[in-house]
Amino acid sequence: MLLIGEIDLSVGSVSGLAAVVFAVLSVNRGVPEWLAVIAAVLTGAAIGTVQGFFYTRLGVPAFVVTLAGLLSWYGLMLYVLGSSSSVNLDESGLVGQLTNYYLPIQPSRTAWRRSARPPTSSPPTTTTAAAGPPGCRAGRSARSGYARASSR
């Protein structure tokens, strides 16, 4: 529907369902990963075909079709996941290898900058306000609630 200038509200649910199909098939069911990838792509294609049918043949507005798809595909995704609600992928599998290849683990720049700083010789100092803001009675701070103005 994006090709014809309409908005697709269900794209997140569709991609989530395809990912869940891949994960459940490859991890929980023991299907080879290449076959699970094909099943996930076919799941997305089938969903696109169903939603395209409702839009082109039945004339249902794309907003309505994709809003209904958003809810129904998300519900189906939760059903396929079952009670576990998550699937842990193996790092040595296809997804783990692709993730480590394209997004290698690198130390963050802030951690590098912190370790490059020389240690400080003096301890950090803290400041406290004893009397609070001007106009407050001595011994009361601004944290203690409403402070009365001095009557002197």
From TrEMBL:
The keyword Transmembrane helix applies. Part of the binding-protein-dependent transport system for D-xylose. Probably responsible for the translocation of the substrate across the membrane. It is a multi-pass membrane protein. InterPro entries: ABC_transp_permease. The chain crosses the membrane at residues 7-28, 34-55, 62-82. PANTHER family: ABC TRANSPORTER PERMEASE PROTEIN YPHD-RELATED-RELATED, XYLOSE TRANSPORT SYSTEM PERMEASE PROTEIN XYLH. This is Xylose transport system permease protein XylH. It is found in: Cell membrane. Residues 110-152 are annotated as: Disordered. Keywords: Cell inner membrane, Cell membrane, Membrane, Sugar transport, Transmembrane, Transmembrane helix, Transport. Residues 117-152 have a biased composition (Low complexity).
